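G., the chain you wanted modeled:
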Amino acid sequence: MTEHLTAAIEILLVEDNPADVRLTVEVFKQAKLHNTLHVAEDGEAALAILRDRTRRRPDLVLLDLNLPGIDGREVLQEIKTDPALLSIPVCILTTSRAESDIFNAYQHHTNCYIVKPVDLEQFINVVQQIQDFWFSIVKLPKLVPG
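Predicted structure as tokens:
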């Protein structure tokens, strides 16, 4: 049980924009948290990572909606209808401000919906706040894949 308390925080970033990936990775590196950030550039890769029973499941998924192939909306729906995955918190991090996207994300049980700021400093601030909230304030489940 102690190993879970000292284990790295597993984060799955599902994002196809290389600039946003680089920036998010850098902010998490500067955080001084013991974390492992995995990146999936599309929905297919994200679902493959999530369903790989040989890997530790993520503690949090940061999910963009607008992805090539299987988009983030479909990934969210897959996560939240799969009994093995549904307890993983999913934070939508997207440029979409569409009310229909926000409504549908919550209908499919997203844990939060954040619109990415276009301003670089604001984006860095948002990523830092996500990190602070999910890894300093919230208590996340620690489950071993079975």
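The domain at 2-132 is CATH 3.40.50.2300 (Rossmann fold).

Shout if anything looks off.
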